[in-house]
Amino acid sequence: IGVQRGYLLGSQLPASMGGMNNHFYREYEVRGLEPARMEKAFNGLIARHPMYRAVCTEDYRQVVLKDVPHWDLKVWDESTSPDIGLDIRDRFSAGPDPFTWPLWQCEVIALKNGKHRICLDTSIMMMDGVSGGIATEEFFKLYTAFGTSPDIDPCQALPLPTLSFRDYAVSLLAGMRETTTYKEGREFWTR
């Protein structure tokens, strides 16, 4: 939680002072991708997980938006836009804006060889490595479920999460404030 605030604060500094937006960009080349089904699976994750609806506020907090619009996957055709890969990398190089939904960017390129390249950029403000692994696993399960039952409710396709990031943060902060380390640190930094 403190780390996330540090990332957010650091993203607001000029580059000359070491400021940078912390994000994770990757590309995957896949065969047999159905972009419409991928879009449905992403929207399923948005429905299931509050952090997929989160944004940061100007006072360095995170809030979960109650309602967000349907997320649309942009699909490009490499044969008509040969430099689109470079364009996406350039546009995504700064990372997602932490104050604007969504906290990720994803576009797909239909390649000349019949494969698709998925270009995915995720803000570290929305998930860590473990959460990313869980989200990837759930994405594939939803993608598969939508292939066999296109009208399935994503919240019924998988068991509902039993713990949210908010639950974790609230319990962590409640317990942390009682520790000697927290009290000593607070005293030091508020003098």
Residue runs with pLDDT of under 50 for 5 or more positions: none
Mean pLDDT: 86
Distance between the termini: 22 Å
User: What spatial order of strands do you see in the largest sheet?
Assistant: 1-6-5-4
Helix coverage percent of residues? 40-55%
**Beta-strand fraction estimate:** 15-25%
Outline the fold blueprint.
Elements lengths: L1 H10 L11 E8 L4 H14 L5 E3 L5 E3 L9 E4 L6 H9 L11 E7 L5 E8 L5 H20 L5 H4 L7 H12 L3 H10 L2
Parallel strand pairs: 4-5
Antiparallel strand pairs: 1-6, 2-3, 5-6
Helix pairs in contact: 2-4
Structure description:
The protein is α+β, with helices and mostly antiparallel strands and 191 residues long. It is built from seven helices and six strands; from the N terminus they run αβαβββαββαααα. The chain has helices at 2-11, 35-48, 84-92, 129-148, 154-157, 165-176, 180-189, and strands at 23-30, 54-56, 62-64, 74-77, 104-110, 116-123. A four-stranded mixed sheet has the order 1-6-5-4, with helices on one face. A two-stranded antiparallel ribbon has the order 2-3. A hairpin with a 5-residue loop joins strand 5 (104-110) and strand 6. Helix 2 (35-48) crosses helix 4 (129-148). The relative contact order is 0.17.
Task: Put the structure in a nutshell.
Helix 2 (35-48) packs across helix 4. This protein has helices at 2-11, 35-48, 84-92, 129-148, 154-157, 165-176, 180-189, and strands at residues 23-30, 54-56, 62-64, 74-77, 104-110, 116-123. The mean pLDDT is 86.
